[in-house]
Amino acid sequence: MIAALVALSAVLGFGVAVGTGTASAAPVRQTWWLDGCGMPKVQVHAWTRPGNYKTVIALDGLRATNDKSGWEYNTRIQDMASSGVNVIEPIGGMASFYSNWDAPSNLNGQKYKYMWSCVINNRLIPMLDQKGLAVGPAHKYAIMGISMGGSSAMIIGANNPRISHLFSMSGYLNLSAPGMRTAIRVAMLDAGIEAGMGPFNSDSMWGPPWSGRWYDNDPFVQINKMHNKKVRIGAGGGFWGQYNAVGSVGDFIGNVEGTPLEQLAWAQTRAFQVQALVNHVPITTDFPIVGTHTWGYWSDMVWRAKNSGWFHD
Asked: Which one of the listed residues 45, 165, 293, 299 is annotated catalytic?
């Protein structure tokens, strides 16, 4: 657990941005701006195509940046828009857990309170409705995320009747488990320091560790809100594979740190699997033996979900 706590503050790397289609039959890439519910305006990148059968909102990880989503930097999941699934990527939200916070983060002098749940539920989804992107027979949305965004996707999806599909990849799905609140505290402190923004305070997010808001935002505790939802979870076994090439000392350190991070996510995701079984919530799973806390493995998880038909209603 000590190794996992230290590793949970690791940096997720970023890569190269990709292009988009422009022909009438090809996906269209768009940039939208949303009212931030008291935060600065939120940028959204979208890849859409008429006739697609589902729209998915893709959430970033702990070290989200304000220019592009990690999904766009590191993967080509936007290519799903060429074959059925519109991809929507909100930009930003570092260390936010995509939640409405109790107060601005006081340790780094943040000028505003994070209000990400408001942005996604009350700004983004109504905009998607207006643009006719509630496609498919159910006219509802999918939401997915990695790491921090994985647990966030589960909570947002569980509480929003406009969302039918929930997908967590390497998410921490039992935040009330012993040691997890300390792990989250350490990770949020480190994320802000590494980004030059100063440490984020988890007490400003959901209150002190004994606050009930930690339970409100714990997918494990909120499992019974996921009945009648289509739920998918996944995590790697922590073993190195094709996305763990070592070309520098930084690559080696990132790979080493990614192993305990993923093993902790695997343990938490397996615990959630048992919780779903006990509470009769049907789920699908993706537990490859090979896979660390790295974007390439998450991209593969998304494509496996799509190719299996999971995004269909």
From this structure: 293
Query: Is residue 35 one of the residues assigned to a domain?
Result: yes
In a domain, residue 289? The reply is yes
pLDDT tens-digit readout, 286-312 = 999 999 999 999 999 999 999 999 999
Count of the separate structural domains present in the chain: 1
In a domain, 134, yes or no: yes
- Is there a catalytic annotation at residue 147? yes
Which is the catalytic residue, given 72, 89, 257, 262?
262
Residue 247 has pLDDT above 90, yes or no: no
For residue 262, indicate whether it is catalytic. Answer: yes
203/211 Cα distance (integer angstroms): 9
| Cβ atoms 148, 114 nearer than 8 A | no
Provide the residue count of the chain: 313
Where residue 43 sits, what CATH number does that domain have?
3.40.50.1820
Distance from chain centroid for Cα 264: 16
Tokens for 237? 């076994």
CA separation for the pair 87, 276 (Å, rounded) = 27
From residue 148, give the alpha-carbon distance in Å to each of 117, 276, 300. 14, 20, 18
Q: Give pTM, 2 decimals.
A: 0.90
Query: pLDDT tens digit string along 7-23?
Result: 444 333 333 333 333 33
Q: Determine, yes or no, domain membership for 1.
A: no
Mean pLDDT over residues 205-232, rounded?
Answer: 97
Instruction: Tell me the residue range of the domain where 88 lies.
Output: 21-307
CA dihedral 96, 235, 281, 303 (to 10 degrees): 90
Rounded CA-CA distance 8/96 in Å is 15
Pairing between strand 230-234 and 163-169?
Answer: parallel
Q: Which of 147, 164, 170, 204 is catalytic?
A: 147
Is residue 248 very low, low, confident or very high in pLDDT (cuts 50, 70, 90)? low
Three-class HEC string of 143-177? EEEECHHHHHHHHHHHHCCCEEEEEEECCCCCCCC
Instruction: Please report the pLDDT score of residue 246 as a whole number.
Output: 74
